[in-house]
Automatic annotation (TrEMBL):
Pfam families: MFS_3 (PF05977). It comes from the Bacteria. Residues 1-404 form the Major facilitator superfamily (MFS) profile domain. It is found in: Cell membrane. GO terms for cellular component: plasma membrane. PANTHER family: INTEGRAL MEMBRANE EFFLUX PROTEIN-RELATED (PTHR23513), STAPHYLOFERRIN A TRANSPORTER (PTHR23513:SF11). This is MFS family permease. Keywords: Cell membrane, Membrane, Transmembrane, Transmembrane helix, Transport. The lineage of its organism: Bacteria, Bacillati, Actinomycetota, Actinomycetes, Micrococcales. It is a multi-pass membrane protein. Its main location: membrane.
Length: 443
């Protein structure tokens, strides 16, 4: 148990964890309100419009990936987060006021979704990479998993509270309340002891924007990881569309939708906590979790009652977060610190960029053929992603027969790959004789 929460022994990480938890609860409340506004207030249960809103919100990280990754590596991530969290706070207030004044329209909501997406495009890679500024490398995997646990604790609380608040006070006030929760993150960033942050290598020069892409391209294991995450993210992780349309199919209101999102988070939280127990993030866990997600989704799609569907969602959430948390930890712990921000920007672009690709398709399928068909599409995507991962593993040369056990197979583990550069203008025979060279086995 102590090993599971070891990162919380650090003051900076405790402050970060609490601030992120409060902010994420507000974020899930707002997400629930936004989806319900588009689906029931601005349209007549139009799932396609909901998919377009998600595409606009999650598209900017894909378009701006080069710039956002470079910014995350070039500048102080703590200051970046001060700026992005402040912008998100102001946007939430603006949407809340327009809803309270009853002047919000669907085009306006599309515009705000785009602005939220642009702000999050800069916030997400900085936030993901900032974890390794707060904790040392040996605690990075644990810290990433606990971050996921915090996110999913918020996912457990936020949608349920948001659904109730929509019924009690209306969607506009939910946005205003979320704006207040951003203050928790700003206070946490202010309280951090800057002298205890882990020193990091900063990139210099705009010519290195493409380094994150090159680094990922040279790593077949990362390419396969990104493909798995993209496929499942595009077709399987459109939970706002699935949960809201299934809630309507079962005759439930906003509180029923919020409850489904919270039930999904129960399994998600369990997956995150189990990931925190693992000493190392492994590729095979990512693959099997994608397959488990596919099976759980297909089974949930045929459940005849609201209660049974909700129960199956716990398994869907468990496999989803196991896959995503392990993939996040794997990318961070096997990537060189000098390009980690840009690699994480590529990773976040894959996750968020999958939504603009898949959400409109899932929304259209749900509208034309029903929500169960859309869920089944996501389930098949999970099985395909698992098959791709297993196929790569079998032909990559990493899978071997254990010489000590006749029927046991072993998989070669990935070690961190380092990029070591010395700028030409700083290189000399004297420096070459004294500069240490990083070796993976020493890390």
């Amino acid at each position: 148990m102590k090993a599971m929460f070891r990162s919380l022994g650090l003051f900076n990480y405790r402050v970060w964890f609490i601030g992120a938890l409060v902010s994420n609860i507000g974020g899930w409340m707002q997400s629930t309100a936004q989806d319900w506004v588009v689906l029931t207030e601005l349209t007549d249960n139009n799932a396609t419009a909901m998919g377009v809103t998600m595409a606009l919100q999650f598209g900017p990280p894909l378009v701006l990936v080069g710039a956002t990754g470079w910014v995350a590596d070039r500048f102080d991530r703590r200051k970046i987060l001060f700026a992005t969290q402040g912008v998100l706070l102001l946007l939430a207030i603006a949407v809340g006021v327009l809803l309270l004044m009853d002047v919000m329209t669907l085009p306006l909501m599309f515009g705000f979704a785009l602005l939220f997406g642009i702000a999050n495009a800069f916030d997400s890679p900085a936030r993901q990479a900032f974890v390794t500024d707060v904790v040392s490398r040996e605690n990075a995997s644990n810290a990433v998993a606990l971050n996921s646990a915090s996110f999913n604790m918020a996912r457990l609380i936020g949608p349920a509270v948001g659904g109730v608040l929509i019924v009690v006070v209306g969607t506009g006030w939910v946005f205003i309340i979320n704006a207040a929760t951003f203050l928790a993150m700003l206070v946490a960033l202010f309280m951090m002891r800057t002298d205890e942050l882990v020193p990091r290598v900063r990139a210099t020069g705009a010519q290195r924007i493409a380094d994150g892409f090159r680094y990922v391209w040279r790593r077949p294991d990362l390419r396969v990881t990104f493909v798995i995450v993209f496929i499942v993210g595009a077709f399987g992780m459109n939970f706002p569309i699935f949960a809201s349309t299934m809630a309507l199919e079962f005759g439930r209101d906003a509180d029923g939708y919020g409850l489904l999102s919270s039930v999904l988070a129960i399994g998600s939280l369990a997956g995150a906590l189990l990931a925190a127990r693992r000493e190392r993030a492994r590729m095979r866990v990512i693959m099997f979790a994608a397959g488990g997600f596919g099976v759980a989704s297909l089974v949930s799609s045929v459940m005849p009652t609201y209660l049974l569907y909700a129960l199956l969602l716990t398994s869907v959430g468990f496999f989803t977060v196991t896959m995503m948390t392990t993939a996040n930890g794997y990318v961070q712990t096997t990537t060189d610190v000098a390009v980690r921000g840009r690699v994480m920007a590529v990773y976040m672009a894959v996750i968020m960029g999958s939504t603009p690709f898949g959400a409109p398709i899932a929304g259209w399928v749900a509208e034309q053929f029903g929500p169960r068909a859309a869920i089944q599409l996501g389930g098949v995507a999970g099985l395909v992603a698992c098959a791709i991962g297993l196929g790569w593993l079998m032909f990559s040369g990493r899978l071997h027969r254990d010489p000590e056990h006749r029927f046991r197979l072993t998989v070669d583990e990935t070690q961190p790959i380092w990029v070591v550069r010395t700028p030409p203008e700083e290189f000399s025979d004297e420096i070459a004789a004294t500069t240490p060279i990083r070796v993976p086995s020493d890390r």
